[in-house]
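Table 4 source record.
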Amino acid sequence: MRRLLHKTHTIRMVLVVFGLMLASTCFIFASQKINSAFDWENQTQKFEKSGDIKSAKKIYEDACEYFLKNKLYKEYVRCITGLATFEKNNREYAISLQMIRTADSLYFRYKLDAPLLLGEINHLHGTLMIIFGNNLSAVKLLESAIQEKRKSLSELDTILSVTYNNLGMANSNLEQFSNAIKYINLAINSLEHQQNNKLNLLAKFHENLGITFARMGDFSKARDYMFRSLSEKLKLSTSKNDYANLASSYVNLGQIETTLGNLDSAFHYLNYAENLLTKTSNPESSDLDIVYNHKGNIYSLQGDYEKALVYYNKSLIMLRRKSPGHSRIKEIEMNIGHIYYVKQDYAKSVEYFLSSLDHTTISASQLKTYRNLGKSMEALGRLDEAKDFLTMAIRLSEQRYGKENFEVALSHLHYGNLLKSMNLLAESHKHYSTALQINKKLFGTKNRDVADCYLRLAELELQRKNYHACLQNYQNALIALVEDFNDANPSTNPNTNIQSPDYYLMNVFAGKGEAFFELYRKDKQLKDLYLSFNNYKLYASVVNQIRSKLSSDESNLVISSRLRELLGGALRTTTELYKVTDDSYYLSEAFMFAEKGKSAILLAEVNDREEMLGNPIPASMAAESKQLRNNIAGYNKLIHEELKSTAPNLNKIDLWREKVFALEKDQEELAKRIKTINPDYLKYRFGDKIPTPKELQQLLHNETILEYTLTNEAIYTFVVNPDTFVLNITPVDSKFKELVASYIDNIRHGLLADAQLSFNSFIDQSHQLYNILIKPNYEYLMSERLMIVPDGILGYIPFETLIKQLPEYSTPDYQHLNYLIKDRSIRYSYLASLPFIEWPARKKPDKTFVGFAPLYVQTEPRNNDNLEFRPVLNDIPGIRVEVQKIAEGISGSDLFLNENATEATFKKISGEYEILHLALHTLVDNDNPMFSKMIFSNSPDSTEDQLLNTYEIYNLDLSARLAVLSSCNTGSGRLVSGEGVMSLARGFLYAGVPSVVMTLWEAEDDVATGMMPSFYENLKQGQEIDQALHNAKLDYLASADRLRSHPYFWSSYVMIGANEPITNLKEKGIPVWLITIGIFTLLSVIGYLTSKKITQNKK
């Protein structure tokens, strides 16, 4: 680019770049005078080849000084250009760009006439523009470079060939593929006509041709050229074989394999590339960002969305450091938008997609963004906008690539999805079929994108009720996904365990299960019902395998949600099989499906802890895993809170994201080491460790389990007691969830201004819910004790409040209503199996009870250095009274009140007690439940922020039998499909506390002060935990008036988990030492009085 700089600016740049080095003299220049460029070029090349970068750079700088001092301006500019090339080769791109712009300015300032030198300046400048993502500028500069070089060079000169190659790649980046192929072939031809073939250059040119064919969608040619290039690079000697150069071949092969759906091979190549790039002198300036972006894509395809996000963020940070306006930034923003789309955060996905739009050009990245915006708009119900984006994606992709390209196929596929959602099934089928034909031509039959097309066609045929056509499409998808399976009969499945199953396999088996069930309903052929069941079983197995490979609970939540959507079909099939065969095996299998559809992550976490304590891996590895998890969660919390602030500090966020990335890499390495020691370790987490109903019956004593599963069509209620195992199915519709939501809202708001209206509404809703949830199962409630396993929104209901009959009176009187609590004690569980897990033997705590009750002093919100703002909280005087009353009656109790109730103290001593009682404020974070927190004293602390997060509870080593969370909302939280209510209480269960008493909403201060001491008195009498809480509630009801007996006051406290009594609770009495002193004193007094009396008698 011909551009003159201001004279003073030029001088300043020269001084900045080189400085005045008159005080020092290079050893070359001290011994001889430089008469030509030959000497310094030979010397720099010698040092560069030997790896002595420092000496090479010193010669460049001294040569530049010499030429400037002696007014050899042509050599001076040539030397600057050489130094700029040197900096570029060492990945110092910003410095190189600054220097080459200086060289360009000086060339015209000194009015030089050296076309070859100007060609080299423009060549390097254009190459740097490619690196910085400015390909339009690169094309202009490289075309100018060729024009200048042709004045002095043959068309077949090596120097010209490199410029042709770079011009080809700039065109390839701009998707001007015909120009790209033309110029790269010119580069190759110029080398092939030379006697001394430049194998290193030829390898690079073949690689670039492969990249271009891959971008065009010709993956067969792309693979051929990539392997040819890699073979040529591997023939080079070590001195010529640059790590970054070799890594680029592996990166490109990884990308091709990803596109072809060969994810294991792709990861293999990317790992090679990453290892090579980390060995370069400046990894941060290398192409590691490309590797991390591609790895993020693979994790996304495998369903590990949180890990994908970590890799995308690292890639984004690296790119912004290279150049804030780098063209690849928008591609990564689009990838991040896709993650939020999958997580159903559509507003955020649209935000990222819009940010990734570049209105100056239409690229492959832009076409993907249009497609993604179309998907998101569809999900948001903005169908007209969705249609506009998707039709635009089809039109522009066909204009750019023709009609047989992968991008065109994807555009048709997503437009077909939109049309199907609009019930335009014929048009949808047309677009699906177009996508299928394109992908089959590009990839053959064994490909995941081909499978995706068949899946869409299968779902469409299911909607049309063409069940045979539906099943055939699902079978074709199965064939496309499983390498060694080719049976086109939908009744068959792979008969071996599928290694590394593809994410799409879940949809295949679940879809076949649903289609065979619908075929059974149509034709009444029992074989179809069996086939439906078998496919749902395979579905559950694949889910477990995929889950065992995911790195985070957040990624598993997406799987849980998908599993929950399909659970209704599995239950429907299995219960129908039970009805028609009367085989109890299928009833048992239905129960197992119901259990797998609830809190699978919590069960995996508890299994994980159980296996850790069972020592399947060395203790040091278990401790390392725990520490890594805690550190990752800690940094994620900082990021989460900073993003919520009004002016987020982006530098801090980037710093913390890099910390998370480094910790994730450490976690990956640890996982490899664990797998070496115990290959089956990760299978424990999502294995089939759920007790069967028969096993549960043997564990139950005088108790009945009611396990609910709520689908869109029915409530499945499994009733299990020592003598009975039955299933009741109650049809429901959307109004049922509205009833539940209204009832929960009614209770939580307590007494309203219109007492009569509030009372009438409560009793009506309560009785309706009793008739739906309890009455159909009442005849099987053989004992007075119930364990409720709720599902979905039912997890917010205190079942104790349901009334058996409507009262005969109309006056608002809550005390005398016939609540379920009056004849049944109730405990809760996230899973029926959870309370019966056999925890490994642990050391019995030395102490009995510890209570924490801080004083909340109202202060202005403050920022604790790198911690989030602390909210202003009202003090709760009753909580200190509450814990003091409790502690007064328990021997071996400790209290931490007011400013002594600190987070640091709790973490330090919590493992020493059998009962933990926390009377604290709670902040529920529905965006990220792991960052919900219990708030300790706001007294200053140098190590803790006084906010105990859920993720921190997970990493505590607790030996307590019971945790009482007498706080606000400790049992509430976000409702996650397939997992239930994500509350703080889950953290205590994972940390090893088998029993938890928690609150569903903020409890009234004076009620807690009365009810909790009563609960502990009952425990001291040897009552089991659920019974102790049950009787404490009944005592409150008996003493409350008819309004204060509203369930708002007493039903907030619920108990989850195991219910064995705590046998070593003792009444606090007079200390033994004090009794001893008292007895001694009494005896002394008696002795004195007796002696005195005897003396008096003698007188």
